[in-house]
Every structure is written in structure tokens, then in C-alpha cells.
Amino acid sequence: MNYWLLNMLSDIEFLKRLKQIFPSVMRHLDMLLLRHWSKKISNAENILNKSGKKFYSQNDEDGILLEILKRIKKNNGSFIEIGVGGFVANNGTENNTIILLMLGWKGIWIDSQKIDINLNENSRLKFIKEFIDKDNCIKTLEGGLQKLNLKNKDINVISIDIDGNDFFIAETLLNNGYKPDCLIVEYNAKFPPPILYNMPYDINYVWKGRDDQGSSIQHWVNCLEKFGYKLICCNITGTNAFFINNKHSDRFSDIPIDINDIYYAPDYHQYTQVGHPTSTKTIEYFANKKITKITKHPETRDEIQEK
User: Is residue 25 part of a domain?
Assistant: First the structure.
């Protein structure tokens, strides 16, 4: 197509032509990004990055989390994710724990934005619409735990991504008896190690797209070490960091010791889409389906038999 001719087209005709070429352009971008991702993985110092895959996570977090759980032999459990809605187009269909829900786990989602997902009374997923802060997070979670007949010690995975006071929420949870096997947190990759940065706590903070948010990876490492957690991976876009409870540290002896071999600099907005767009009905299908038996399945060697 001679693109200079587009200037001579009517608005309606222009939109028709654009609609014709758009899928091809997006597919080409996907292929370029996949090559970029593959090159980063092949050069990774950390073996966990080689397990990275995107199914329902923002980037490659799904594959990393599944590999971690496989290593610690945690085939079924409970999760909490704080910050699941994302942008309007996300609507709760892109986060770190959807994959766990699909594998038979149960858990709690919290976000200040409403998500368009219909959950029945007996759903294994409880959604709480709340602007979370360090003063209300414990009480807010207590309600969700009661509905699932869980206690804080039963939570195996916690993921926090609220673009601001993340550290203060994590600190409050850990100070109040939450000891997950795996803790996933967003870090501000603008600050490489050994820079220490932690935004001052602001109960009314709303991220406006600048770099004055969150915490540097070095700050996370130094502080979570006091709670018995060890950094084992950062995803390749420099968005999320994975920490493991020290009781599982023997399962990760092959992870680099130097933080610089784990840290990834910011490389955001890497993916456009993998497979078909996610439907909220897909989330509802898994969230509202009763699990009757759990045995071997492809990723964690467990099979899920559903009723």
C-alpha cells in the first residue's frame, strides 16, 4: 500500500484501510518483541528467568512463579493479590495469580477499582474493592480470609502491585503474621543496586507516571532480609521481584548471589498480547468452578479433576 495515498482518503475509507493493516502490524511487533525477550533470556545469569512465560501475567511472571512453586513442591494453596485491576482495559484479566486460580488455588483479590467479574457465593476467589493502606489492610483481609475459612498463616503466595505504598503494605502484613512461601513485589527499576530508595508513606498517594514511587530493589532486599526472605528473581522487564521464604532457600542454591545478576533494569511495555484476548468469563469459569480432587497436572505434576 502507498501510505501517502491515505491522505487522499475519506475518514471512513481511511479507517477501513487501517483496520486491514492493523493486525499485521501488531503481529509484526509481537514477533520483534518475542525475539527481544528470547535474547534477554538466553543471556540471563539467573536460571529462573529461563522459565519465564506469559499466560495471564503482565509479562513473564507466570512461568517464573510456576517454576518456584514446582521447586518448593507447593501444588495447591491460597493466595492474596493486592492491585489486580490495572488499567480499564485490564479489568482484572491480567495479574500474577490468575494462573493459580486456574490450577485450583483459592484466594483474595483487592483493588481500588471495580472489576467486571461475576463471582458466586461459593467462589474460590473473593474480590474486595478497597483503596488499601497500611492502616486498613489487615482488617480488610480478615473479612476475605473468613469467607474462605483461612487464616493468615495459610497464605502461600502474596503479590503486591499498587504503584506506590507497596513496601508499607508488605511490611504491615509481615509484621502481622503473614509468612507466605513466595512474595512478589513491584520494584522501581529506575534505581539500580546499591541505590536505596523508598518513597515516603502517603496514604492518599496516586501514581501519576513519574519515578517518585515504590521502592528500589536494594531497599526491598535489605528490608525483607530482616523478615527471613531472600531475593531469587526479577522478571525481565524490571517490574516484579520474587522473594522466597528462607525455609525454602535450599531449593534455590543455583540462584546467583550477586544482586546485580538478578536485577533487571526497566524495559516496560514489552508485550502486546499472547493468544486471544482474555474474557472475564474465562476468569469466572475457573473462579466459580468447584474443585473436587487434585492429582498430577502438566506444570506442577498435579492433575485437577473438576466437578
Answer: no
